[in-house]
Amino acid sequence: MLLSVIVPCYNEQDVIEKTWERLTRVVSENGRKEKYDHELIFIDDGSTDGTLDKILHMAKKDSHVKYLSFSRNFGKEAAMYAGLAYASGDGVIIMDADLQHPPELIPKMVSRWKEGYDQVICKRDRKGDGAFRTWSARMYYRLVNHLVDVRMEDGVGDFRLLDRKAVDALLSLTEYNRFSKGLFSWIGFKQTFIRYENHVREGGTSKWSVKRLLRYGIDGIMSFNDKPLRICFWMGGLLFTFGVLYLTVIFIRILLHGVDVPGYFTTIFAILMIGGVQLLSIGVLGEYIGRIYHEVKRRPPFIVDKTNIKDKGKRS
Ligand code: UDP
Ligand code: MG
């Protein structure tokens, strides 16, 4: 049996060797006990620091280390997809490079996997996160779960073990705009959760700026269905009904009392309200069109520059 661990890395020169050491220690010991071999796939997502050199160095010392290096930064979603595509394990673990996902959980994950679960999901608490970030995440998930068809949970990230079945299912979803959190949930299979305490980064910095988080948030809502379009439809309908009613009332008043000129408030009200709703709806439309635009181009989600993996997707 083979267990693959895939680790997306973007400018992680400060921690990557530590990650490799801790991972290797845990996985080789556990592998002896549970009788599996392992491979560690590091995906260098176009790092601009010494990450790739460190990875090459590790690969030279340890034959379990495989790597992929992208031609530029394609984002973590692309890196994870590449990892899944190049992994040949019967089970695949996805893990961050910054040790926020403790490798020490792996034995527990493997034993759950052997019990027959196809997705062993690690769920973190929000210890050490800022109050605002915790609150906004909670609000966001409440909103998202109303809007989309799949269930997404707070604290559940990409740290998980996937059985080969689940990996193949994920690989069969070839969309360009990947929102893994949703995809993991969409494919289904038998799932179980392991809770763990949140850790702060061991080194380097987080790549999540507010702008990036916002973009990610919008992706989550837009990638999964067309409900936002329907909301526009209902808003339009509501405003139209309201407008017709209001016009009827005014018209009857004109018939009864004649025309009265002052109407500044109502005019402004109509312009602002309807204009606002229209702009918003056009924006939503635009979002979807933008996504369609990217999908129809059928560009590959990533481009590999260097790798030491010869037989890509051996089993799939
Ligand atoms: N990452 C990546 N490409 C990117 C951004 C991030 O591969 O464009 C990797 C990064 O190296 C790390 C993981 O994704 O292993 C999570 O990133 P980060 O720690 O910045 O996110 P956070 O833990 O703050 O959510
Ligand atoms: Mg992190």
Strand tally, please? 8
Task: Write the CATH architecture name of the largest domain.
Answer: Alpha-Beta Complex
CATH class of the largest domain: Alpha Beta
Instruction: Give the CATH topology of the largest domain.
Output: Spore Coat Polysaccharide Biosynthesis Protein SpsA, Chain A
Helix content: 40-55%
What is the element layout, followed by pairings?
Elements: E1 2-9, H1 16-34, E2 37-44, H2 51-61, E3 65-70, H3 76-86, E4 91-94, H4 106-114, E5 119-124, H5 131-147, E6 156-163, H6 164-172, H7 180-187, E7 191-196, H8 210-222, H9 227-257, H10 264-297, E8 304-307
Parallel strand pairs: 1-2, 1-4, 2-3, 5-7
Antiparallel strand pairs: 3-8, 4-6, 5-6
Helix pairs in contact: 1-4, 9-10
The protein binds uridine-5'-diphosphate (UDP) and magnesium ion.
Magnesium ion (MG) is lined by residues 96, 98, 100, 201, 206.
Structure description:
The chain has 316 residues and is α/β, with parallel strands linked by helices. It folds into 2 domains: 2-212 and 301-307, Alpha-Beta Complex (Spore Coat Polysaccharide Biosynthesis Protein SpsA, Chain A); 227-297. Helices cover 51% and strands 16% of the residues. It is built from 10 helices and 8 strands. It has helices at residues 16-34, 51-61, 76-86, 106-114, 131-147, 164-172, 180-187, 210-222, 227-257, 264-297, and strands spanning 2-9, 37-44, 65-70, 91-94, 119-124, 156-163, 191-196, 304-307. An 8-stranded mixed β-sheet has the order 7-5-6-4-1-2-3-8, sandwiched between helices. Helix 1 (16-34) links the parallel strand 1 and strand 2 (37-44). The longest helix has 34 residues, at 264-297. The radius of gyration is 25 Å and the shape is elongated. It starts with a strand and ends in a 9-residue tail after the last strand. The model has no long low-confidence stretch (mean pLDDT 85). The site of magnesium ion has 5 residues, from loops.
